[in-house]
Amino acid sequence: MKRKVKLIGAFTAAIFLLTYCTERINIDLPSTYTRLVVEGYFTTDTMAHTVKLSRSADYFYNKPLEPVSGALVTIADGSITYLLKEDPDSAGLYKTEPDVFGVQGHTYTLHISNVDINGDGTTEEYSATGPIHYLGYPDSIQIVEREMFYTKVWEIRLFATDPAETRDYYMFRVYKNGTLLQDTLNEVFLLDDEYFNGVYSMGVPVQYLVARKQDEVPKPGDRITLEIANITKEYFFFIDQVIDMSRGTGPFSGQPANVSTNLTNGAMGFFATYPVRRVSRIYNP
Description:
It is a single chain. This protein has 285 residues and is mainly beta. The protein contains 2 helices and 16 strands. It has helices at residues 6-20, 233-247, and strands at residues 36-43, 50-55, 72-76, 81-86, 93-95, 107-115, 124-131, 140-148, 151-161, 169-176, 179-180, 189-192, 200-210, 223-231, 268-274, 276-282. Strands 7-6-3-4-5-2-1-15 form an 8-stranded mixed β-sheet, with no helix packed on it. Strands 10, 11, 12, 14 and 16 form a 5-stranded antiparallel β-sheet that branches. A hairpin with an 8-residue loop joins strand 6 and strand 7 (124-131). The radius of gyration is 20 Å and the shape is globular.
C-alpha cells in the first residue's frame, strides 16, 4: 500500500480537486450494458439516511444519470429492518425516517429489489453488507496557517488516540459555520493508522482549507468543525480509486477503469457504513 505518499498525494489532489472538481463521476461502460448505480450511506448520525439509485451511462454521457424509481429498499442488522421510502420530490432517492441511526459493532445489509435495470421484464435483486467499526472521541483540533506548494492553506491538525487493537482507515471532512466544505468524494481526505496505530497523535494533519477557494478561507470567529469517520478498508480503497480516476493520468491515458464495489449482481457504486465523530474550534489566528 502506498501510504508513505498518501499525505502529499491527498493534499495535491485537494489543491486541484477542491478547486475545480464538482461533477459526479461517470464510470465507463459499453453503451449497451446498463447497470444499477448505488450511492448509499448508513452512519451513527441520527438522521434520514439515503440510498440513491440510478442507471449507468457511457463515460462520455455528460447528462445526469437516469434515476431508478419504484424500488423496494431496506437496511437491516439482523434484528431491526428499516424501510426506505422514495422521496416524492427527488426520483431515485430513498430515505429512512429521520430518527434512524447506526450502532457501533453492528453489521448492516442493504437490500434492493423490484428493479428491472436492463428492461427485459425480469426484476433483479441487489445487496451489500458493511460493519460500523468503533470510533472513540477526539480531543481537539488545531488550525495552522501555512504555505504549501506555493499555496496558502490552513492545516487542520488532530489530537486523538488511535486504538491499538485494530487497523483503522479514516475519512475527514470539514464544516465552516455549519456548512460542509467537502461535499463530494473527490474532496475528502483519507488516512490510515499505519504510522500511528495505538498511539496518541500530537497534531497529525488531516485536512486543508485552500486560500484559492474563497468559501474555505476562515475568518476570526468562524467555527471550524472536523468530521472524522472510521470507514472500512474496502470503502477506503473505493474512494482512493475514485480520486485517482478523477485525476486521470494524461490526455492519452484513455477512459478510466471501473472502480471496486461491495454490491452484488453487477451493480456499481458503494454502500458505506461508518461511525462519525466531530470536534470543533473557533478560529482565532
